[in-house]
Amino acid sequence: LGFGDVQVWIPSDVKTSVSANCGAGDIDVLGNRDEGLGNRVEHQDEGYESAQRKLKLMVKLGFGDIKISRV
Length: 71
Prior knowledge:
By secondary structure, this protein is mainly beta. It is built from no helices and five strands. Strands 1, 2, 3, 4 and 5 form a five-stranded mixed β-sheet that branches.
């Protein structure tokens, strides 16, 4: 995505691996944060590799905010 905001809600029972990159803006991946220019946040739940229900999410954004949360 070139610019804008990205919000993703992940079910609490799904193990997740997330890679989030942003040229300029804020990133919040399940409480792991970075802000400013050239941001990157990586997150992988414990037990992700062996989980039956799992999600691999890669988000790349030029300008804006990325927020990944649990529901």
